Amino acid sequence: MAGTGAHTPQLEELDGSGLRVAVVAASWHTVVMDGLVAGARRALEEAGVDDVTLVRVPGSFELPVAAARLAADHDAVVALGVVIRGGTPHFDYVCQAATDGLGRVALDSGKPVGFGLLTCDDEQQALDRAGLEGSHEDKGYEAAAAAVETADALSAL
Ligand code: DLZ
């Protein structure tokens, strides 16, 4: 499913049973978002994480503020959203704000923030990455796996 050079997580080797993980998901582009959320849940289950909180926000622009709040009392956050390019520069501003904001949350909190924000030119690109039947990639799964793997790595320091 993943492209050349992609990291393949070995989630079954992790013990995520002691982790509290929050998933924050935007609500635009429902079909794609359903795939991303399902992929994230699957990764967390494979890693043995049973304490999972799902928070929905309106759009991807709202992901960082929710992630900031959730990072305060969770071991890791998984941020999921889909932004699809339109005819105005709005796409660039939402993508930039969400990306910068989520990076800032991770550094300010010291907690991993899985980056599951799809930034796509069209809907087909998003569907191809949503972990749905016929998708080539599962970015919700990948983002959750990265968050849990990083939380595990940090807990060993
Ligand atoms: C306004 C907007 C637009 C045009 N497109 C998207 C999108 O493709 N994906 C997404 O997650 N959110 C979009 N939004 C909503 C903004 O993220 C935000 O929710 C609103 O500007 C309100 O703050």
Give the low-confidence spans.
Answer: none
Q: From the 3D structure, determine the CATH topology.
A: Rossmann fold
**Main beta-sheet strand count, sense and barrel state:** 4 strands, parallel
**Which second-level CATH architecture applies?**
3-Layer(aba) Sandwich
CATH homologous superfamily - what is it? Lumazine/riboflavin synthase
- How far is it from the N-terminal to the C-terminal residue, by CA? 32 Å
- So what's the overall shape? globular
Strand order of the largest sheet: 2-1-3-4
Using DSSP, what is the number of strands? Answer: 4
Number of helices: 5
The SSE string, one letter per element, is EHEHEHEHH
Number of domains: 1
- Secondary-structure-based class equals alpha/beta
| Share in β-strands | 15-25%
Ligand species: ligand DLZ
CATH class: Alpha Beta
- CA radius of gyration is 15 Å
Q: Averaging pLDDT over every residue, what do you get?
A: 95
Function: Catalyzes the formation of 6,7-dimethyl-8-ribityllumazine by condensation of 5-amino-6-(D-ribitylamino)uracil with 3,4-dihydroxy-2-butanone 4-phosphate. This is the penultimate step in the biosynthesis of riboflavin.
EC number: 2.5.1.78
Catalytic activity: (2S)-2-hydroxy-3-oxobutyl phosphate + 5-amino-6-(D-ribitylamino)uracil = 6,7-dimethyl-8-(1-D-ribityl)lumazine + phosphate + 2 H2O + H(+)
Protein name: 6,7-dimethyl-8-ribityllumazine synthase
Describe the secondary-structure layout.
Elements: E1 20-25, H1 30-46, E2 51-56, H2 63-71, E3 76-84, H3 90-109, E4 113-120, H4 123-128, H5 139-155
Helix pairs in contact: 1-5, 2-3
Ligand DLZ binds next to strand 3 and helix 3.
